[in-house]
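Appendix B, example 12.
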Amino acid sequence: MNFQGHLECVYRMLKQEPLVFLLGGVLLQFLIPLTLGILSGPFLGAYMLMFVFFLRDGKRPVFNDLFSGLQRFGELFPFFFLSLLIMAGFLFFIVPGIFFMTWWLYALVLMADKRMTLGDAMRRSKMKVDEKGFFMHMVFLFMIAVVPAMLINIAAAVVPFFSILHLLVMPLQCGCLASRYLEQFEGIDPGDLLTSSLPSQEKISER
């Protein structure tokens, strides 16, 4: 697992498009709870696609892309039920939640990018995780979810202001997941994304 490559991809993306990716991620962290999670699928699906399109196609994101998932509400809304199932798994002794989150790691991005139904996306995601290694995917989740939170909590214990960095974890997670998705499903190595697929600053300025 080229985790460093995924992080470098995220760094490049956030460096080139900080306004949309960073502020967009912060905005969604306020909007999704306001909708009680009902719009988590449309919002997060659109946000994930922004990263995927930028990495794979060199498509520059615009702020309105954050709301493009609302036009596909019927397709992406079922992710809400998957979120409830994962939450229920964590409530029952935590372990089932870890298994569910790992198996269905790619479900939402498959629904958004490949227009799969929830059931098909769950099956395809689980197949890929089992094929490529459940443990490595669990480690990947640990690296993008648990480690950043721990580091921020440690920093915030020294300087309370650093707790605001929790708002930046979502862009990190979604960017890494988009890079990992393209690696696993389309065979695109993160190193190749860094040298070819990511648009250069010069190309972006020309658009």
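Confidence is low (pLDDT under 50) at residues 200-207. The chain has one domain: 3-200.
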